[in-house]
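Standup notes
- HV: blocked on the assembly model, inputs below
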Amino acid sequence: MAKYECPECGRIYDEAEGDAREGFAPGTPIADFPADWTCPDCGVRDAVDYVKVEGSEAG
Amino acid sequence: MSASTEHHHHHHHHEDDGIEAVAPDWKDGKRYAWLLGLVVPMIPFIAYGFAEASGLGVFWWFGPAFIFAVMPLLDQLGGNDTSNPPEAVIKWLEADRYYRWCTYLFIPIQYAAIVFSAWMWSRGTLSTVESIGLAVSLGCTNGIAIANAHELGHKREAAEKWLARIALAPSLYGHFMIEHNRGHHVRVSTPEDPASSRMGESFYRFLPRTVSGSLKSAWHLEASRLRRAGNSPYTLKNDILNAWAMSVVLWGALLVVFGIGILPYLLIQGVLAFSLLEVVNYIEHYGLLRQKMDDGRYVRCAPEHSWNANLVASNVFLYHLQRHSDHHAHPLRRYQVLRHFDDAPNLPTGYAGMIVLAVVPPLYFALMNKRVVAHYGGDVTKANLQPSARDRYIRRYGNGGPSSTLPTAA
């Protein structure tokens, strides 16, 4: 489990928390996101572009 | 109207000083000009004022005169607007809440204009032609309101997203916020985007494609999001349905209070409003195409994938929408900090003037096709081409030939 950040707009996805609005249950790895998922805030970057936040790995 | 922003150069650029960038000795030359955006929701009131003062019913048509004559004229008088805020003041400028209030204030005036118009239609004192004129004028207000909703709908703040929905309710275009942010921005300047026009595609061919394609795409995006969470799309959690519910409430209330007789005028203003948004979509990415990378994804949207204009008058009335390259590269940036790029594709005139050209396709093609070809260094195969015109354009313009070079990415 780690946190990932959008390199364009800084939106954070925390794998431990998931993302209820986007329909990702707590514990969903970002690697499991659908291939066509794009950053909901900026629309500029895709899931594969999200960058792991250093030191955010836990559990 | 001051065309320039004055800057006294900072000799020390401390970009990394953090969020508390100190208010600099730089002044935003357009700071108070943004209040002029509030003229747009006042259009029906201005129409009334002129019609009353002069006794001439033709002034009920003030809205289209404003967009198609006054704005282009002001663009000629106001001149260019190519100055950018220095990097060091961006965070400070973005955080200044004054600029947000300029966009929020638009909405209560917009709604006052709608109620006023409905009241005028219901009184029976206007001739049918004058009532249609008022509907067209209100359509201009509610069309430019989509530019206001666009600014607000891009923001993370929930309150601003709600204000965007309210501004979209009169034009029945609540689904725009979904499709624009998660559809158009993702697929911009690709053949898959219904809202990116193709070289050789007239506005009249583009309009039904973008209206129906955007609607289908918006529904698909929102339904997929809800299904991932195990919800049916038929719920008020669906941001398309709750936005449309606002339209139903607004239109329903107007019809109950002012009578079914105003329905034709409501329809005229609504269709005109979203058509105005779509004609702006038409000019923003005409013919531009993102190339594909080796992994099959399109290259990230860059400044070279949008058309810009730099005229101060239309910049002010459209909240810097014409600084479109910076907007697509950084969609969360607030309007007051959007930058002009000299090397991004630039339109021959402001958006207001381009709209006039777009409704006359031969004129538009004559003016724009050569600009698209020049942008791609003579290689028309690099453009987003209307499939039915593809062979004809390749014969006419060629693929650049062996000696042609691509312009360096802007």
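- HV (later): unblocked. The mean pLDDT of chain A is 94. DSSP finds no helices and three strands in chain A.
- Next: hand off to the docking folks.
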